[in-house]
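Please, structure for the following, as tokens.
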Amino acid sequence: RLVSHLEKRPEVRQVHWAYSNGFKGNYERIARGDDMPGCLFSLVLNLPLPSFYDALRLLKSPSFGCRFSLACPYLYLAHYDLVSTDAGRASLRAAGLEPDLLRVSVGGESVDDLIQVFDEAFEACARDAGA
């Protein structure tokens, strides 16, 4: 439900997850069972990642597998030297990597609570952009 909700938001350019077009068949070949897409997805946004990330009320960490949800601007950790310059960002995009990719590991919170957390971050970004 969370991924479906995010895919409908105009602020979201793309959601990458196990059942995304082009990935579902590969994932189903290695999945432990039917309808078990796992808890990890990544977002590419149509708004600045830093303001959204700051407004997102999830714990921030590169460590996944917890019982609570986490968010991580993955390429900022792995390739800060590249995401911090225009030339580096262009190089990442040329390699098929979105510099502002946000990875999310979903924990045990209710889906409704997580939807609210993401919607609040989108609304905060909209307010900041209008200020």
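The chain has a mean pLDDT of 89. The helical segments are 2-8, 24-30, 49-55, 74-78, 80-83, 86-94, 111-130.
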